[in-house]
Amino acid sequence: MPRVPGPRGRLQDNPVSGQKRVLLAAPRGYCAGVDRAVIAVEKALERYGAPVYVRKQIVHNIHVVTELEAQGAVFVEEVDEVPPGANVVFSAHGVSPAVVSAAADRGLHAIDATCPLVTKVHREAVRFARSDYEILLIGHEGHEEVEGTAGEAPDHVTVVNSPDEAATVVVKDPDKVVWLSQTTLSVDETMETVRRLRERFPNLQDPPSDDICYATQNRQVAIKKVAKDADLVIVVGSANSSNSVRLVEVALEYGAKAAYRVDYAHEIQQEWLDDVETVGVTSGASVPEVLVREVLSELAGAGYRDVEEVRTAEEDLLFSLPKELRQDSSGRRDERALGGRAAGGPAAAGQDRT
Fold it and tell me: Scanning 54, 55, 124, 316, which has its CA 20 to 30 A from the CA of 102?
């Protein structure tokens, strides 16, 4: 779907009883795994030329997908839609071994842009399955990340979608069960699910390290701090972005009087701003900063010109690009081998390393 910019001055600057302001959450937007995946597609296009095929959306953001399509990326649902011998990128959400095998059977040149934090969960699933543990995978059934992780050990994995499902899940051996989770969930809801599971299975084992990614946690912590002072919270992110949807839920749970998700600034509705003094703004981990800037510009037109950043953590993590893309065509190490917008290159324009 092409991006349609909103008209300037669309929102009215109506009076409110107090002072209008924006609380801008930080960290927000791109995480290291998303950055790595998007740059992987860009560099594959530079290296191999268009088209480069991508299985599923590289990250769950409509703007990013549209921009990459304009550069020559072709997004497909499954690898059987990719011409034999072509280049294909696996998305940041990860794939199952069955997808890897299917790509190999078609002779595809596969570039794995799976977030390293998702890969960690895959490895945990394989290790626990080899030790014959039952794995309770907390996540949303049908989400690409859950499908990929479950595909590592399908005979050992049961997906638990919510705290309520903890009451009905069945295991063969309650003394040999472990929980893992999707990386983009609400921290609070996940731990409530674990609490309920442990009530039923006291010997439930924890994963060796936290599965919910640092960026998801950091963005939730930041919006919790903003939400308590916000009449309205606007989350920039797409509907299929699990972590963006969770940010709306967290904002409401922690005190925001209202919270909405938008892909673009022009989706902000005038009635949302009625009697609103303080607007909280954040963005999901797959959202480029330019979209947040457009939201701030739209809000400024409605009188919300006083912007205060509320920062709860610093992020400087970078992930190496997939090995196929760490060198340029002449074999020299590429200056963007670590990913990261701060490393330079055409994608750096308009980005904020938050």
Answer: 124
Q: What is the pLDDT of residues 299-333, one digit of tens each?
A: 999 999 999 999 999 999 989 999 989 876 666 66
Q: How many CB atoms lie within 10 A of CB 81?
A: 13
Q: How far apart are the C-alpha atoms of 220 and 214, rounded to whole Å?
A: 10
d(CA 134, CA 128): 8
**What is the H or E stretch that residue 112 is in?**
strand 109-112
* Per-residue tokens: 151: 């595909």
Catalytic-residue membership of 145: yes
Active-site entry in 134, 145, 289, 315: 145
Among left, alpha and beta (phi > 0; psi -120 to 50; other), residue 87 is beta
Element housing 236 (H / E): strand 232-236
pTM for the model stands at: 0.90
What is d(CA 156, CA 154) in angstroms, rounded to the nearest whole number?
Answer: 5
Place of tokens 């696996």: 90
Determine if the peptide bond prior to 174 is cis (ω within 30°).
no
Tokens at 149, concatenated: 């992780």
CA distances from residue 232 to 155, 252, 257, 258, 280 in whole angstroms, order as listed:
45, 9, 6, 5, 6
pLDDT tens for 224-259 read 999 999 999 999 999 999 999 999 999 999 999 999
Q: What is the mean pLDDT of residues 102-113?
A: 98
* 254, HSE (Cβ side, Cα atoms, 13 Å): 21
Q: Cis peptide leading into 51, omega within 30 of 0?
A: yes
